Amino acid sequence: MILDEAEMIRWGNAIGVAARTPLFLLLRGPLGAGKSVLARSIAQGAGVEGAVPSPTFNLVFRYPSSRGVEVVHMDLYRLSDPSELWELGWQELGGQDELVLVEWPDRAEGMLPEHRWEITLGPVAGDREARMVSVSRFGVPQDLPGFPVSVDL
Fold first, then answer.
1. Strand (E) positions, the chain?
2. What CATH number should be reported for the domain holding residue 84?
3. pLDDT tens track for 38-88
4. 106: containing domain
5. At the N or C end, where does the chain have fewer CB atoms within 10 A?
6. Do β-strands 23-28 and 60-64 pair in parallel, antiparallel, or remain unpaired?
7. Would you say residue 29 lies in a domain?
């Protein structure tokens, strides 16, 4: 599907509302594709209040939500070696009440959870505002009712 930024924000909010934990959502795409925008809107849909900045320099932020879910937002762009994942608590992620959002999951290849959803964002030729969005399911992750969640345009 193809979404502009406003549609992607509405879609992300709908995903956050529908999400059941434990759940891993991996966000792929080039710089500027909208991974952080989508992660922020998913977190807000899941009940996170206040600012949801990109964890580019901190690598990981944890947010409590009004639904009792902890949203873990990771940005692995600055990860220099997959072994650094252990320092971030990677092996402990996926607890019963965790919604884990991972940007740049390619930095963790070989260590990705077996059960996950992956969302890939990419540019659309000739339209700087639009993003091509594809969704893939690996293993048997928690269902997201109606996923991919439709956007009410």
1. 2-3, 23-28, 60-64, 70-75, 98-103, 116-124, 127-138
2. 3.40.50.300
3. 999 999 999 999 888 777 777 889 999 999 999 999 999 988 888 888 888
4. 2-138
5. C
6. unpaired
7. yes
